[in-house]
What does this fold into?
Amino acid sequence: MYVCMRCGNTFRREEMEEYFKDFRCPKCGYRILKKVRSEAVPRHVKAV
Ligand SMILES: [Zn+2]
It folds into this structure.
């Protein structure tokens, strides 16, 4: 899984490759992506 640093869209590599043969966000085309673990929920949410 990857997350776009611009729009926050998360997507899989296969999805991305359907749109571009490149490392880009399928939604906005931005090229700064962060790799995240598949299906993992971010753990930095604190209980309030
Ligand atoms: Zn994006």
Summary: Residues 2-35 form one domain. The longest helix spans residues 13-19. Helices lie at 13-19. Residues 4, 6-7, 9, 25, 27-28, 30 surround zinc ion (CB under 6 Å).
